[in-house]
Amino acid sequence: MAYNIIEVLKDKLETPLVGNTGFLAPNLEENTEAIQHIEDAIKGAGYEGKVKIAINVNASAFFKDGKYDLKFKSEESDPEEYKSSEDMITMYKDIKTNFPSVIMLEDPLHKEDYEGWTTLTTDLPNVMMVGDHLIGSNLTRFQKAIAEKAASCVSLGLEHIGTISETLQFVEHAKKFKWSICIGSGDVGTDDTFISHFAIGIGADVFKVGAPSSNPNIVRYNQLVRLEAELGSKAQYAGPELEKKLTPEK
Question: How far is the C-alpha of 222 from the C-alpha of 113, rounded, in Å?
Answer without folding.
Answer: 38
